[in-house]
């Protein structure tokens, strides 16, 4: 999911900013979108809908609305089904006032907390893990809302980057492990919080800094107050897959440019997985392009854009059924035959999940007359499901969990297949291994 928040002097553009910010975060979720804000009379207002931002929300209406603080969310579901009931922001009115919250991540102990809350009388309205946070807050009757939120967050395990509106303030928090990204930006007297820095660029805000793992930031009247969640993790788990695939390349996460990391992944891949008889390098659009460029430069081979993408088709992975997913890839990608015919080609993609994309790509590259196809993957094999907010399938549907590289190469139909190593992933990101989550690659999950 993608989240966005803004607070500043009342002016009509604040809600327009949320709309623009969510638009820039669209790649993080396409199922639903929503905005919550406090209007001029101090009432909490919401607009939510299913589908892409432009379908779910009315820009015309939001641009006219006045408010001093607002949050927004684009969703792709990892916990709870895809329906309007689960669209965020979620809101609640409880004894201490009104709260709205939007969440990116996956709370691993949500079911346990939910059962406990239900046994104490809580009635859940959605099936999202996010609602647990609101109930935990409401159960802290003796605490002011911000303290109740801190108490609630300290009970959570797993991944949560959140933005919330509480008592006319914008609140942002990142879990103590730092799974999902979260950045702070500023333009004039207006402060922003966003999943990725590309959403700050669109509102012309400067990137102030990242929210730190375990930090709670409260923004009001132009002041930022920093508090912390009282949980001391043994190590961090910043999601390495954000750099591999999820984030936009024009974002910076935790001080690293996603573009630079992808280029480095490609360069390292060329070192680990050379292609001696390769004649040119292609990237699988769009996710493999930057890695392919890095690979081509490092191996001194020409880079060609010989696979063309229909830019009006969304991400294949997001589609629900296997049949639609398969069709999706064919509708989406088309090779330029004359560049490919009779040549030994190196194809770089960012990752293999079910193997569908690679299998279909190899098939159409063969049909286009490729002589040899060397498939190079700029991440290690995805062999374990993500528990922290990326919708990877269960192990049985992960191609690399079910087959070794030789069988997978045959299944896909490539002449050779080679993956990046976990060490190379870590050194491309250039953070210590104890700062990064690589669980979907090596099964090293959070043990707290
Ligand atoms: P596959 O076709 O092997 O299931 O998926 C791999 C392709 O899907 C890659 O090209 C990758 O860019 C893309 N992809 C889209 N969304 C996701 C996602 O959430 N996780 C992963 N691992 N890959 C994804
Ligand atoms: Fe990211 Fe993979 Fe860890 Fe999930 S398991 S948080 S996708 S690195
Ligand atoms: Mg892709």
TrEMBL record:
Residue ranges constituting the Glutamine amidotransferase type-2 domain according to the UniProt record: 1-222
Keywords assigned: 4Fe-4S, Glutamine amidotransferase, Glycosyltransferase, Iron, Iron-sulfur, Magnesium, Metal-binding, Purine biosynthesis, Transferase
Family matches, as InterPro entries: GATase_2_dom, Ntn_hydrolases_N, PRTase-like, PRTase_dom, PurF, PurF_N
Any one GO molecular function term: 4 iron, 4 sulfur cluster binding
Binding residues for [4Fe-4S] cluster: 239, 386, 437, 440
EC main group: transferase
Record's cofactor remark: Binds 1 Mg(2+) ion per subunit. Binds 1 [4Fe-4S] cluster per subunit.
EC number: 2.4.2.14
List of residues binding Mg(2+): 287, 349-350
Active-site residues (renumbered): 1 (nucleophile)
Cofactor(s) essential for the protein: Mg(2+); [4Fe-4S] cluster
Entry's Gene Ontology BP terms: 'de novo' IMP biosynthetic process; purine nucleobase biosynthetic process
Gene3D superfamilies per record: 3.40.50.2020, Glutamine Phosphoribosylpyrophosphate, subunit 1, domain 1
Pfam (any one): GATase_6
Pathway noted in the entry: Purine metabolism; IMP biosynthesis via de novo pathway; N(1)-(5-phospho-D-ribosyl)glycinamide from 5-phospho-alpha-D-ribose 1-diphosphate: step 1/2
Domain of life: Bacteria
Protein task: Catalyzes the formation of phosphoribosylamine from phosphoribosylpyrophosphate (PRPP) and glutamine.
Family label: In the C-terminal section; belongs to the purine/pyrimidine phosphoribosyltransferase family.
Protein name: Amidophosphoribosyltransferase
Lineage: Bacteria, Thermotogati, Synergistota, Synergistia, Synergistales
């Amino acid at each position: 999911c993608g989240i966005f928040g803004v607070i500043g002097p009342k002016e009509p553009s604040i809600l327009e900013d949320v709309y623009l910010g969510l638009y820039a975060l669209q790649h993080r979720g396409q199922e639903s979108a929503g905005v919550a804000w406090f209007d001029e009379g101090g009432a909490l207002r919401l607009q939510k809908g299913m589908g892409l931002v432009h379908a779910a929300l009315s820009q015309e209406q939001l641009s006219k609305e006045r408010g001093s603080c607002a949050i927004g969310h684009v969703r792709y579901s990892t916990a709870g089904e895809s329906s309007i009931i689960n669209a965020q922001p979620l809101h609640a009115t409880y004894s201490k006032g009104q709260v709205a919250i939007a969440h990116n991540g996956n709370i691993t102990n949500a079911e346990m907390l939910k059962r406990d809350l239900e046994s104490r009388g809580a009635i859940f309205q959605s099936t999202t893990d996010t609602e647990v946070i609101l109930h935990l807050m409401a159960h802290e009757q003796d605490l002011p809302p911000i303290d109740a939120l801190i108490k609630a967050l300290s009970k959570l395990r797993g991944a949560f980057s959140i933005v919330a509106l509480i008592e006319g303030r914008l609140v942002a928090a990142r879990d103590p492990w730092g799974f999902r990204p979260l950045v702070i930006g500023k333009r004039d007297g207006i402060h922003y919080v966003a999943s990725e820095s590309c959403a700050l660029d669109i509102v012309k805000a400067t990137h102030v800094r990242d929210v730190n793992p375990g930090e709670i930031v409260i923004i009001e009247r132009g002041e930022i107050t920093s508090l912390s969640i009282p949980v001391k993790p043994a190590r961090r788990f910043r999601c390495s897959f954000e750099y591999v695939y999820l984030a936009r390349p024009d974002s910076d996460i935790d001080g690293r440019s996603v573009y630079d990391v992808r280029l480095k992944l490609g360069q390292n891949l060329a070192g680990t997985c050379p292609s001696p008889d390769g004649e040119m390098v292609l990237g699988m659009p769009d996710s493999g392009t930057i890695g392919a460029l890095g690979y081509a430069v490092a191996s001194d081979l020409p880079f060609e854009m010989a696979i063309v993408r229909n830019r009006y088709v969304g991400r294949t992975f997001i589609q629900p059924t296997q049949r639609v997913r398969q069709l999706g890839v064919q509708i989406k990608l088309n090779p330029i035959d004359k560049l490919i015919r009779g040549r030994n080609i190196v194809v770089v993609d960012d990752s293999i999940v079910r193997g569908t994309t690679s299998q279909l790509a190899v098939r159409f590259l063969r049909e286009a007359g490729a002589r040899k196809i060397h498939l190079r993957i700029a991440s290690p094999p995805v062999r374990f499901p993500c528990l922290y907010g990326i919708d990877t399938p269960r192990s049985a549907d992960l191609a690399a969990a079910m087959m070794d590289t030789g069988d997978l190469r045959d299944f896909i139909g490539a002449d050779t297949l080679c993956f990046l190593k976990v060490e190379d992933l870590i050194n491309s990101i250039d953070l210590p291994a104890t700062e990064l989550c690589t669980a979907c690659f090596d099964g090293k999950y959070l043990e707290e």
